[in-house]
């Protein structure tokens, strides 16, 4: 980033920001990400979203796995749990189950979510755990310094695919739609306002909301998922897309190599908490179980 | 190696046990199965009166320790009732429908207590004495100074009656045709014998024909014997003692000759080449008398079992124990039988 | 049984196939015995395959005085199916009884009837079970109940006791079912009563009827579930695995009624992750698994230690490694429970030795986890999980309620979640507590919880040392000595389910005049070293019997104390046999340390 621009940028922006109040959601720790990393936009977006939703700091819990992206909780002034690689969702499920009053946001990278943690996603989604899961997809393992991930494009050369990746990358949006996540959307680090809006909607949704966020790793991907490339490729969902139509959502997700930004699908259905409360109700009316 | 021969013995009395032990001595490899309705391993039935002398624990009555059977690889199958023997297929069928093949079969099924027809309806209220369990029931129901009525008085019963007397009980003997069975004393000897019993303290009642045995009205214990002449007698127990009849019902399909008992040659073979018999169940051809004869008494029986076993294993020995069938009263007034001894 | 403990002590083995109602008969028998006021220890064995007619065994030891394990020999075998029972005739002691079906059904091949296999020293009781049953009920289904009735009649157990239990057992079925079964029972009872008894088994009513009505029959797993519930468990996340599953199944039924939350997760990793998440959020959270599940959970155990999150993991061991012997017992996950995972990750491991211990340890595990802010493992095994014992539960809730203390916030200072304190225990705030926002992490961190390597050594020491006082946690037996006081020839040191056999051995050895003591160690981590050391001081020889190949507990103790032990290891899938331990005790009492001692430490010198 250009040294000369910085003070000017800060001067202009900070007043705006302070007036808005979302700075209260930043922690005192400064992010450790590489300058230019897409993740900065996520920090900004989430603090704005929490602020807009009026969620008190102590009522939010950000749970993450391991990865550059998963460092996130340290940089927001809420409760945070930086757990293990891939275990974001089940830990978050436990937190939410123990205390319904908390707003739970689960955050992880593409490797954390779709490689090591891939087994948990369908279950959090189908159970409709009332939380928001955001995957920061940079198509690479950032923290371990640039290995191939499950969303790495075919042909990409990483340190573990020096002769170019030949594996078909998986398609997170199609998967989440198939798993019946009750809210599925996509955002892009390079469109911060849209990103903040999407985060706000996702958190406001009652049920399991999945927000896929395209984000460049400026350090380990200089050729594929760069701002320059993404800026050219991304587009919005058509205005007439009906987010309650699962088949239309599927079709949209499949329509472009880089799927469009926006809300693909949304449905209202009982959350895990609702189901548990209902079970409790029925259990209390049933005869006592045998010793 | 060919399968070892399977020698099956029906009965675990003196004859059966003696046979099993002898088979093992003669052949270390064969399979031996001893099938019995009894619930205890072999014990000498003549020891049963000892119960009244305080020997109530069956362990003490056993002729050999239980380990004998496992050590000698004798399969002892208790609570097994043979219901059929098929001579053609060489199979026996048990009441629970198990089928067992035999290479040789030795029948030592002994005899069951005979009961005159008039008393059959009263059987449930009478006390048998043929097994440990029966003897223990008798012991339980007959108090130390109690009164036993014995009907008949075969040699088994007389032995018991004397023991009961010696242990403080009162015994009334109601005689009949089977008194002193298996001996058949003439009238004179019979009178002497009865006198001897009376001198020992047994109350002898002759020419009385018991009609029914009932329980006294309103009482939980005790028995009432009603006689045909209308008289009655009360007692704690009524013991039928009218000799034994051979157990042969299950042998009807076996293809062997049966008269009262199983008919066997002096070598104890039946008319079936693989079936033998020994003990109280069989009648042995007596060439001098040209008749099939019973030879009772544990000594005879034991000899028969052992001899049959040796013959099964290929010997050709002949049963020629000619113990005289004699019973007498000595100077002290004690009764002696030539073969009915301890 | 030891002479020093007299009175009734009878073990029944009921054996049949899955369709014969074997386990149900065993269940009625054990509940009847408990109602009579007997102490009961029982263990059921099911076939590994779910369908078909696999072998079922219900072994029930009933005694007027407390006993500690099943006996190696049974006094009575009841065969409901000879094809399965035949293999077990040998377990009946001399002059014990074998009860079997006598009435014809279909042709039986030679040797297929149990009567062909009963030893001369054992007492056979054939009875026409099927016929009796059909005559009494018009059907043959209640043969298991006829057999119970026959046994009750034979062994002089009052019929009314069984009537009560049968009525309870079938309470949810139509009345006709209860009536049929009572009729079946009575018919069997009459037959048994009429049978001349030849064995020397005596039951009758116990002399002092001790709390028959208060006693509850529980399995180890049932006791764990009950302990959890009474301690106010909030969440249970779990994944089915033998032999822990029945804990989960009980909680699935009971927890929603009790205001808690239950979820079957997609795997063990999710189960422990969610448990940790819930524990972090302030819930009393627990899960249960077996060795393979614990192997998957170890990474999350480490996070629990590092992030200082309280939660409870019950581990019921089965034969291993890998999928191993799912339906056989073993004590080979001690290493995994105590040490498993990366780094220095001391945690609390409790290994109860009996069913009541399962109840107490499971219930207290929460408060201990909360006090020390760390995961607690309750380590049991299949034998303990599934065995029944009579327990007289306390009338009042004995478990401490969840403390809810929001830490004070020192003025003008940030909240230090991991403050280094004297006792190593830091103030813990929960999500929702105003002003205490912080992030916890599996990375090494500073007092604030921020990632930092600087304090690694101090933090390691804190996490380790804070647990030491747990060895004297009030109200919890962490280790206990039994038997002769003062100096003894042989000390038997044990843990977990095997301690039952150890106690039985100790009493038997005492009866033989061998000076003998035993010590059970319930807290395996941290180890109550001081008291174990004192025990070593008192014993000429220390024998450590356990159900694993390498002597994992022996290694643990021997390593911690630097003192040699004599090992006795078995991995037959079955509990250790008292006779085997006793033989070793005798040998040690006579000769001193000799063959059979594999401890490398032992090479260093004499035992004392
Ligand atoms: C109470 C008593 C006292 C006696 N006292 C004397 C005495 O003092 N002196 C003396 O010399 N003799 C005495 N005897 C007689 C002598 O003991 C008998 O001659 C002898 O017992 C006969 O032996 P055994 O082996 O032929 O038959 P038993 O001993 O009668 O045995 C018959 C066996 O066959 C079995 N059996 C029968 N039918 C079947 C079947 N269908 N299936 C399976 N098993 C079957 C029975 O269970 C039994 O085991 C006494 C007998 C009794 C009963
Ligand atoms: C069990 C385990 N395996 C491997 C690692 C090493 N590891 C840390 S982060 C990571 C991948 C991170 O990639 P991603 O989830 O995409 O996050 P990013 O850094 O790209 O944000 C790996 C393999 C670990 N911490 N734990
Ligand atoms: S390595 Fe890549 S993902 Fe990680 S912080 Fe740097 S730019 Fe971002
Ligand atoms: Mg990544």
Describe this structure in words.
The complex is a heterotrimer of chains A (291), B (342) and C (608). In chain A, α6 (172-178) packs antiparallel against α9 (246-255). With 291 residues, chain A is of the alpha/beta class. In chain A, β5 (140-141) and β6 (147-148) form a beta hairpin. Chain A is globular. Chain A has one domain (30-282): Rossmann fold. A seven-stranded mixed beta sheet of chain A has the order 2-1-3-4-8-7-9, sandwiched between helices. A two-stranded antiparallel ribbon of chain A has the order 5-6. Chain A has helices spanning 5-20, 39-53, 88-98, 110-116, 121-127, 172-178, 192-204, 227-233, 246-255, 272-285, and strands spanning 60-64, 79-82, 103-109, 131-137, 140-141, 147-148, 183-188, 208-214, 262-266. Chain B is α/β, with parallel strands linked by helices and 342 residues long. Chain B folds into two domains: 6-112 and 245-312, FAD/NAD(P)-binding domain (3-Layer(bba) Sandwich), CATH 3.50.50; 115-242, FAD/NAD(P)-binding domain. Helix content of chain B is 21%, strand content 26%. Chain B is built from seven helices and 22 strands. Chain B has helices spanning 14-26, 58-61, 67-71, 132-141, 155-166, 187-200, 298-312; strands at 6-10, 31-35, 74-77, 82-86, 91-94, 99-101, 104-107, 111-113, 147-152, 170-174, 203-205, 210-214, 223-227, 232-235, 237-241, 244-246, 262-264, 275-277, 282-286, 291-293, 327-329, 335-337. In chain B, strands 3-2-1-7-18 form a five-stranded parallel beta sheet. Chain C has 608 residues and is α/β, with parallel strands linked by helices. Helices cover 35% and strands 20% of the residues of chain C. Chain C is built from 18 helices and 21 strands. In chain C, the strands form three sheets. Chain C has an eight-stranded mixed beta sheet. The model of chain C is unreliable at 594-608 (pLDDT under 50). Classes of the chains: A alpha/beta (291), B alpha/beta (342), C alpha/beta (608). At the A-C interface, β1, β2, α3, α5 and α10 of A face β7, α8, β9, α9 and α10 of C. The structure holds flavin-adenine dinucleotide, thiamine diphosphate, iron/sulfur cluster (SF4) and magnesium ion.
């Amino acid at each position: 980033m250009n040294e000369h621009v910085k003070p000017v940028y800060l001067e202009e922006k900070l007043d705006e920001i302070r007036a808005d109040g979302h700075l209260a959601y930043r922690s005192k720790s400064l992010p450790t990400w590489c300058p230019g990393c897409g993740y900065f936009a996520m920090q900004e977006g989430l603090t704005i979203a929490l602020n807009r939703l009026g969620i008190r700091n102590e009522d939010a819990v950000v749970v993450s796995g391991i990865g550059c992206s998963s460092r996130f909780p340290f940089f927001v002034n809420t409760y945070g749990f930086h757990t293990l690689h891939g275990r974001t969702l089940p830990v978050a499920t436990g937190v939410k189950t123990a205390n319904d009053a908390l707003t739970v946001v689960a955050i992880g990278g593409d490797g954390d979510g779709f490689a090591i943690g891939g087994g948990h996603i369908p279950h959090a989604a189908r159970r409709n755990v009332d939380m928001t899961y955001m995957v920061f997809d940079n198509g690479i393992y950032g923290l371990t310094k640039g290995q191939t991930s499950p969303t790495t494009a075919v042909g990409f050369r990483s340190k573990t695919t020096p002769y170019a990746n030949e594996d078909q990358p998986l398609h997170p949006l199609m998967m989440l739609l198939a798993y019946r996540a009750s809210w599925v959307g996509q955002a892009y680090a390079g469109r911060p306002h849209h990103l903040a809006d999407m985060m706000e909607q996702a958190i406001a949704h009652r049920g399991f909301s999945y927000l896929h966020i395209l984000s460049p790793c400026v350090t380990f991907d200089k050729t594929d998922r760069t701002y320059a490339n993404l800026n050219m490729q991304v587009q919005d969902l058509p205005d007439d897309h009906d987010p309650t139509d699962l088949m239309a959502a599927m079709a949209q997700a499949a329509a472009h190599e880089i799927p469009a930004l926006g809300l693909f699908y949304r449905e209202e259905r009982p959350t895990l908490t609702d189901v548990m409360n209902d079970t409790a109700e029925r259990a209390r009316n049933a005869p006592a179980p045998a010793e | 190696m060919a399968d070892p021969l399977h020698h099956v013995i029906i009965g675990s009395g003196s004859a059966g046990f003696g046979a099993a032990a002898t088979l093992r001595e003669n052949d270390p490899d064969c399979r031996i199965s001893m099938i019995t309705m009894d619930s205890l391993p072999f014990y000498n039935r003549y020891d049963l009166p000892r119960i009244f002398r305080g020997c109530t624990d069956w362990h003490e009555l056993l002729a050999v320790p239980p380990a004998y059977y496992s050590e000698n690889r004798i399969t002892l199958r208790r609570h097994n009732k043979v219901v059929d023997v098929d001579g053609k297929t060489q199979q026996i069928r048990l009441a629970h429908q198990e089928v067992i093949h035999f290479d040789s079969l030795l029948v030592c099924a002994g005899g069951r207590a005979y009961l005159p027809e008039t008393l059959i309806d009263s059987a449930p209220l009478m006390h048998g004495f043929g097994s440990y369990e029966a003897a223990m029931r008798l012991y339980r129901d007959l108090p130390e100074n109690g009164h036993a009525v014995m009907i008949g008085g075969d040699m088994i019963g007389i032995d018991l009656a004397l023991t009961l007397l010696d242990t403080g009980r009162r015994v009334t003997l109601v005689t009949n045709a089977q008194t002193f069975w298996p001996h058949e004393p003439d009238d004179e000897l019979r009178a002497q014998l009865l006198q001897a019993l009376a001198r020992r303290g047994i109350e002898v009642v002759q020419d009385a024909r018991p009609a029914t045995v009932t329980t006294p009205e309103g009482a939980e214990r005790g028995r009432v014997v009603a006689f045909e002449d209308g008289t009655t007698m009360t007692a704690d127990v009524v013991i039928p003692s009218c000799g034994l009849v051979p157990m042969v019902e299950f042998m009807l399909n076996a293809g062997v000759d049966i008269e009262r008992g199983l008919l066997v040659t002096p070598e104890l073979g039946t008319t079936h080449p693989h079936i033998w018999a020994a003990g109280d169940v069989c009648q042995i051809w007596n060439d001098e008398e040209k008749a099939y004869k019973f030879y009772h008494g544990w000594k005879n029986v034991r000899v028969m079992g052992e001899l049959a076993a040796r013959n099964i294993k290929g010997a050709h020995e002949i049963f020629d124990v000619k113990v005289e069938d004699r019973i007498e009263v000595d100077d002290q007034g004690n009764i002696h039988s030539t073969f009915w001894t301890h | 049984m030891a002479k020093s403990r007299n009175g009734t002590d009878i073990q029944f083995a009921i054996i049949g196939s899955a369709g014969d109602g074997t386990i149900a008969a065993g269940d009625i028998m054990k509940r009847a015995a408990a109602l009579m006021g007997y102490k009961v220890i029982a263990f059921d064995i099911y076939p590994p395959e779910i369908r078909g007619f696999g072998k079922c065994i219900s072994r029930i030891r009933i005694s007027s005085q407390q006993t500690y394990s099943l006996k190696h020999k049974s006094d009575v075998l009841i065969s409901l199916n000879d094809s399965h029972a035949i293999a077990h005739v040998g377990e009946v002691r001399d002059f014990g009884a074998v009860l079997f079906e006598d009435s014809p059904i279909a042709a039986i091949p030679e040797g297929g009837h149990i009567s062909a296999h009963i030893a001369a020293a054992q007492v056979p009781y054939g009875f026409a079970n099927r016929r009796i049953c059909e005559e009494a009920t018009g059907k043959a289904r209640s043969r298991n109940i006829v057999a119970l009735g026959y046994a009750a009649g034979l062994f002089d157990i009052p019929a009314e006791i069984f009537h009560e239990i049968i009525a309870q057992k079938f309470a949810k079925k139509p009345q006709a079912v209860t009536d049929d079964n009572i009729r079946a029972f009575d018919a069997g009872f009459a037959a048994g009563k009429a049978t001349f008894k030849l064995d020397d088994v005596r039951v009758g009513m116990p002399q002092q009827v001790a709390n028959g009505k208060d006693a509850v029959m529980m399995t180890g797993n049932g006791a764990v579930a009950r302990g959890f519930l009474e301690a106010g468990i909030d969440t249970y996340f779990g994944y089915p695995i033998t032999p822990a599953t029945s804990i989960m199944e009980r909680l699935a039924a009971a927890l929603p009624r009790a205001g808690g939350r239950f979820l079957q997760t997609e795997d063990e990793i999710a189960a422990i992750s969610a448990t940790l998440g819930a524990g972090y959020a302030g819930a009393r959270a627990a899960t249960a698994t077996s060795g393979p599940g614990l192997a998957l959970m170890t990474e999350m155990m480490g996070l629990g230690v590092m992030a200082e999150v309280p939660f409870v993991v019950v581990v019921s061991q089965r034969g291993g490694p890998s999928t191993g012997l799912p339906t056989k017992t073993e004590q080979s996950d001690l290493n995994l429970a105590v040490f498993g995972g990366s780094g220095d990750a001391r945690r609390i491991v409790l290994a109860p030795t009996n069913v009541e211990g399962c109840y107490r340890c499971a219930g207290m595990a929460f408060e201990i986890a909360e006090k020390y802010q760390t995961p607690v493992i309750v380590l049991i095994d299949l034998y303990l999980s599934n065995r029944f014992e009579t327990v007289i539960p306390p009338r009042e809730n004995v478990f401490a309620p969840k403390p809810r203390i929001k830490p004070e916030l020192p003025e003008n200072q940030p909240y230090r979640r991991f403050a280094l304190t004297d006792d190593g225990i830091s103030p813990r705030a929960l999500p929702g507590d105003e002003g205490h926002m912080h992030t916890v992490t599996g990375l090494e961190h500073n007092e604030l919880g921020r990632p930092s390597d600087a304090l690694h050594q101090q933090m390691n020491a804190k996490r380790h040392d804070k647990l030491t006082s747990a060895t004297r946690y009030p109200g919890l037996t962490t280790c206990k000595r039994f038997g002769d006081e003062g100096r003894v020839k042989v000390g038997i040191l044990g843990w977990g389910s095997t301690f039952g056999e150890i106690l039985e051995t100790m009493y038997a050895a005492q009866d033989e005049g061998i000076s003998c003591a035993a010590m059970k160690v319930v807290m395996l981590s941290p180890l109550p070293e001081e008291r174990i050391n004192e025990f070593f001081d008192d014993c000429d020889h220390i024998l450590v019997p356990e159900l694993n190949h390498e002597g994992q507990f022996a290694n643990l103790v021997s390593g911690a104390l630097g003192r040699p032990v004599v090992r006795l290891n078995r991995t037959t899938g079955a509990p250790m046999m008292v006779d085997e331990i006793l033989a070793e005790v005798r040998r040690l009492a006579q000769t001193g340390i000799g063959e059979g001692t594999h401890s490398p430490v032992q090479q260093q010198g004499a035992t004392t």
